[in-house]
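ok so for the tutorial part 2 we go from a plain amino acid sequence to predicted structure tokens. step 1 is just haveing the sequence, like this:
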Amino acid sequence: MTVKDWFEQRKEMQIARRDSETQIDDSVGKLWTKCYSCNSQLLKKEVEDNLMVCPKCGYHFRINARTRINQIFDENTFEEMFGNITTADPLNFVDTETYKERIKKAKAKTNLNEAVISGIGKIEGQETAAAVMDFEFMGGSMGSVVGEKVTLAMEEALKRKIPMIAITASGGARMQESILSLMQMAKTSCAVAKLNEAGLLYITVLTEPTFGGVTASFAMLGDIIIAEQDARIGFAGRRVIEQTIRQGLPADFQTANYLMKFGQIDMICSRAELKSTLAKLIRLHSQIHK
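step 2 — the prediction. this is what the tokens look like for a chain of 290 residues:
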């Protein structure tokens, strides 16, 4: 064997070993996940069977809108509405790439048209309107279509005289739509006012994370405000606030427990109890208003 042949053989062995290690890593990645809270290595199947909650420490992983709907609504009762409304690009916005391209990528990644799913479903047999946000679609940012779909869900609740639930997960207003996204704060808040005038129950469920213009509008206007366990909730981010006031903040700042402590939410609910809690609240309200 020549020196050249030896080096070629050595190179092929290294490539084969690297490919083998990559396959093992991919396999491990498909089977296992790590808890962000306690750092435990967990079987993905075990976490999924536990509603995406760490069985060791109870940490609540983020979940997408469709998973949330499947967990909360009775099987095969949720009917999505307004799914044909899609995002335009009114400002022809471009940063490192065009807004249209970002939307296209978000649709491919999530198989959603926008960062919220609106519709009607049943929770333990009780018909309810809902808007369920998805953080995976551009950080759950609220643009014109998100505001429109949330508002239309509320108007559907008014039409049918049924309760309304908004489940939030958002980084705030969508900068690519500028003032048009900020206008959704007023639009959704007006729709909430109409629910209130009609005496219809409006519940908000704040999940990890809920920030910005969503927090500053329909998320914090619920008759009953529920925060999911482990959720971070606020307006501006922690770092921005610390830089503004030039002092440190408590370790638990902007957590569900912190907001509960200061009376900004009504209750903290674990994921396992969320469906039954919502069903009890809807049932209680319907009994009072009979």
